[in-house]
């Protein structure tokens, strides 16, 4: 965590003889990356406006200084918990990490993934899962508006919209953040990623890394610096590629990331236009079902079936474009807006050798074969309520399970939107007004097909079990206003705010699966939420700030949860799930020491629940669940001297279900089941901790990072013989069996060697060792029955994902300038 610190009491900053506070502006740029990028660029460029008169410079910088001071107070006195991951922490991460794994350096965050790099991430913050969190990129929503998270289950699980090499900062706001930082649709936290700003120096870097598990990374990045004759235009580009065999057998993957960004100051540097384009691609194999522990004990912890026997392959593309403008009107008013475009595409191909589909085989090898999920799919006629297909699995492959061994799915969605923002600075008020208008469209679906092998024809009407004409979309209208009122000589800060969001959703279904009129229909619904926020902070001393806040958050139901009512003419749609979040804390912000201690209580209502009404045969979704999270968090950083620093965090979370309901029981949402009042949430450790010791002297950097993940509740399946149909084969938390705790130690080191020959200015050598002590541990563990035609068969057995063993990576980069 990057600490916030000030060298002088509020309002007593050092001044240059001419009254222009250059030191203040420079210090802010260096020490406060969490502040508004608008303010940073404007202030930094104002300092460089040497072509204006001294009088103009003094006036402009005094005006912007006033704005800086208010923004600084806004972060130092924020009434909510906040953690920051700075550029150095990101820069020195290994290729095995991702934008999600880095978050474990902040309190109350648990994360794991099943591959080197961004492979199938699973994330919780205070027990709140990824699909329930808001994620923003430069302030715009990067989460899927239709489904939450990156998208629907088993889509876009390889690669990500933005990679570690494309960002320079991350802000984590657990709970409910102030409205201008909250993002879209969250019931428990916001993670905001900041893309790399074009540097002011001109250079070009060429880099390469070689690591364990045949992991290779190579690429380049280049900065134009301020281009002469353009009034400060700066450009930056980066291209990198990583390929790996994966630490689990037979899970190779490749990631290609491209970033282009530009910044053009104007109005003597006080305003700016920014542009960002990110194009990332990824393809790789993942494990849709953990392997049996008995097999891992027999064949090795990282065993996986050969790809010729079982495979789940994904190929994904992510294109993001953001165009922003921030205009400095005067010392009281700054206006801006960001327009954005996000396109995601996902291709999935799954195969399972027919011998493993038989009920006699005791283990679940792969869920991505049609027979496991659907059972026999005989040819069907073109009739109302049926998606027709003439493919006969028995005639072509001899049996249903052999003829339904493979499937291919296509998916994609496109989001366009604009996010305007106005900052108003008054003598005792800082007012922020903002909004979001965005529309996401998914489909046409592209098709879902099944066959006996992956070398299949893809013909709608022959072997399709999804209609490519299906289409869903959601339009979001959101606006917020927040005010920070500064009283008692700027010692008391009151921050009221409110967000009003409406979501209009439609889902076109070309074939009525219920078999009742109409044959094709459109499900549509409009929901609106009003979300208040109130924060209070008080400067007990110049260094001690006490704070408390209340906020309400909401998440709209995924579009796939909308169904046709029994009458055949109405849409049955669950309402938003909501959270009431309370927290209070105290932070110490000194010259060399930063400390924060807080407690939180989050009550989540109307949680989405899925169940089958066996009397009518309809699948129904409803808001019946209730969950509660409460806990304590501590974090801090101490700069011992200019070379040494130590930082760390410790958190305790108690997350429980408050009533009985059908639920998605695991954070990855791959296990649907039933929970009971008082049950703890699975995969949510009570205790999490981290420690980082850093050393930096001249051109040498080193860090030792220790993390602790405490015991966590696992799950098991109730027997298929349960008398209540809702409980048959249902996954439920298993408090009696907990995943063992584990420690991980990471080592980072780099040394920059000055060269100064021709255009080569330096060479940097780096070393990363993740899991230095080579601990062996499980990330996920549960007891389950094998699923055969969507029914539990055989005897229950244990399944697990292993954690990554020791990963060693050597890097070399050269800088040309």
Can you lay out the helices and strands and say which pair or pack?
Layout (H helix, E strand, L loop, with lengths): L21 H10 L5 H11 L6 H23 L6 E3 L1 H5 L17 E4 L9 E4 L2 E2 L4 E4 L2 E2 L25 E8 L14 E7 L6 E10 L3 E10 L9 E11 L8 E14 L4 E15 L5 E2 H7 L10 E21 L2 E20 L1 H4 L12 H5 L18 H5 L2 H4 L2 E20 L3 E14 L5 E4 L12 E3 L4 E17 L4 E18 L11 E19 L4 E12 L7 E2 L6 E2 L4 E13 L3 E21 L4 E22 L4 E14 L3 E4 L7 E4 L11 E11 L2 E10 L2 E6 L13 E9 L2 E16 L2 E11 L7 E10 L4 E11 L4 E10 L1
Parallel strand pairs: 5-8, 35-39
Antiparallel strand pairs: 1-7, 2-3, 3-4, 5-6, 7-8, 9-10, 9-41, 10-11, 11-12, 12-13, 13-15, 14-40, 15-16, 16-17, 17-18, 17-19, 18-21, 19-20, 21-22, 22-23, 23-24, 24-27, 25-26, 27-28, 28-29, 29-30, 30-33, 31-32, 33-34, 34-37, 35-36, 37-38, 38-41, 39-40
Helix pairs in contact: 1-2, 1-3, 2-3
């Amino acid at each position: 965590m990057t600490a916030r610190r000030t060298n002088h009491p509020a309002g007593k900053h050092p001044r240059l003889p001419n009254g222009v506070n250059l030191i203040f502006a420079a210090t802010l740029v260096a020490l406060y990356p969490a502040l508004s990028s608008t303010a940073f660029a404007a202030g930094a460029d104002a300092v460089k406006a040497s072509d204006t008169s001294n009088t103009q410079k003094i006036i402009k910088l005094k005006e912007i200084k006033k704005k800086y001071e208010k923004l600084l107070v806004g972060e130092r006195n924020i009434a909510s918990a906040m953690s920051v991951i700075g550029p150095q922490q990101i820069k020195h991460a290994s290729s095995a990490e991702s934008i999600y794994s880095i978050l474990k350096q902040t309190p109350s965050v648990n994360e794991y993934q099943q591959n080197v790099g961004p492979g199938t991430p699973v994330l919780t913050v205070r027990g709140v899962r990824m699909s329930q969190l808001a994620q923003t990129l430069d302030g715009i929503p990067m989460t899927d508006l239709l489904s939450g998270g990156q998208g629907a289950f088993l889509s876009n699980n390889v690669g990500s919209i933005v990679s570690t090499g494309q960002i320079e900062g991350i802000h984590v706001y657990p709970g409910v953040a102030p409205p201008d930082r909250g993002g879209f649709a969250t019931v428990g936290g916001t993670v905001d990623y900041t893309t790399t700003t074009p540097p002011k120096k001109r250079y070009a870097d060429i880099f390469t890394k070689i690591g364990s598990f045949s992991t290779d990374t190579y690429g380049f990045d280049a900065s134009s610096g301020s281009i002469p004759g353009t009034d400060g235009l700066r450009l930056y580009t980066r291209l990198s590629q990583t390929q790996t065999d994966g630490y689990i057998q037979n899970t190779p993957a490749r990631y290609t990331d491209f970033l282009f960004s530009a910044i053009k100051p104007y109005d003597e540097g006080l305003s700016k236009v920014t542009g960002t384009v990110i194009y990332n691609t990824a393809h790789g194999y993942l494990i849709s079902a953990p392997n049996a522990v008995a097999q891992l004990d027999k064949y090795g912890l990282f065993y996986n079936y050969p790809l010729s026997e079982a495979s789940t392959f994904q190929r994904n593309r992510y294109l993001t474009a953001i165009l922003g403008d921030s205009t400095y009107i005067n010392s009281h008013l700054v206006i801006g807006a960001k327009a954005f475009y996000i396109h995601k595409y996902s291709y999935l191909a799954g195969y399972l050798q027919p011998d493993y589909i038989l009920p006699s085989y005791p283990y679940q090898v792969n869920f991505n074969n049609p027979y496991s999920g659907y059972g026999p799919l005989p040819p069907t006629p073109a009739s109302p309520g049926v998606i027709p297909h003439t493919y006969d699995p028995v005639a072509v492959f001899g049996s249903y399970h052999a003829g339904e061994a493979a499937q291919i799915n296509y998916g994609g969605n496109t989001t366009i939107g604009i996010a305007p923002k106005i900052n108003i600075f008054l003598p005792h008020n800082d007012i922020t007004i903002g909004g979001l208008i965005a529309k996401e469209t998914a489909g046409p679906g592209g098709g879902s097909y099944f066959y006996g092998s992956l070398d299949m024809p893809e013909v709608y009407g022959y072997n399709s079990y999804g209609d490519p004409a299906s289409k869903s979309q959601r339009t979001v209208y959101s606006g917020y206003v927040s005010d920070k009122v500064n009283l008692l000589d700027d010692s008391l800060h009151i921050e009221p705010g409110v967000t009003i969001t409406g979501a209009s959703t439609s889902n076109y279904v070309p074939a009525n699966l219920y078999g009742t009129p109409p044959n094709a229909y459109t499900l549509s619904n409009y929901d609106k939420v009003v979300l208040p926020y109130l924060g209070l902070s008080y400067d007990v001393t110049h260094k001690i700030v006490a704070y408390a806040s209340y906020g309400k958050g909401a998440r709209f139901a995924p579009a796939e949860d909308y169904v046709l009512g029994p009458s055949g003419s109405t849409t049955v749609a669950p309402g938003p799930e909501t959270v009431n979040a309370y927290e209070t804390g105290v932070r110490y912000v000194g010259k060399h020491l930063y400390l924060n201690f807080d407690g939180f209580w989050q009550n989540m209502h109307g949680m989405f629940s899925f169940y089958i009404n066996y009397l009518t045969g309809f699948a129904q979704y409803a808001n019946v669940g209730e969950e509660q999270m409460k806990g304590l968090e501590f974090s801090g950083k101490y700069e011992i001297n200019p070379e040494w620093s130590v930082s760390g965090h410790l958190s305790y979370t108690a997350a429980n279900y408050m009533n009985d309901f059908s639920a998605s029981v695991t954070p990855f949402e791959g296990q649907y089941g039933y929970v009971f009042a008082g049950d703890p949430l699975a995969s949510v450790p009570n205790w999490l901790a981290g420690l980082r010791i850093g050393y930096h002297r001249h051109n040498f950097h080193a860090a030792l990072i220790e993390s602790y993940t405490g015991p966590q509740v696992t799950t098991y399946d109730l027997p298929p013989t349960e008398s209540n149909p809702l409980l048959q084969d249902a996954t439920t938390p298993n408090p009696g069996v907990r995943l063992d705790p584990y420690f991980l130690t990471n080592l980072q080191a780099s040394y920059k060697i000055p060269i100064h020959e021709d255009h080569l200015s330096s060479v940097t050598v780096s070393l990363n060792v993740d899991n230095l002590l080579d601990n062996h541990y499980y990330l996920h563990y549960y007891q389950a029955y094998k699923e055969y035609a969507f029914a539990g068969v055989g005897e229950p057995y244990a399944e697990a994902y292993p954690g990554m063993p020791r990963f060693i990576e050597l890097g070399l980069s050269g800088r040309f300038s």
